[in-house]
Design a protein that fits this description.
Layout lengths: L2 H36 L5 H9 L5 H10 L2
Amino acid sequence: MDKRDESGRDARRRFLKSMALTGGGVAVAVKLGQAAAATEPEGQAAVDKATEDYHVTQHIRDYYARAQF
């Protein structure tokens, strides 16, 4: 074998190792980002979010009246 073949093989191995480490690092970063995004807001923002989705309208009042809750 020629010396160039061995250095090319070593460079290729270093490249593949670095790609594997980079891929693992990206996976960890994505997982940490998802965990951080999954946390709920605290304080008044959490209360505002909970109440902004549900609005009691006349239609809902009529339904409750008929359903006899």
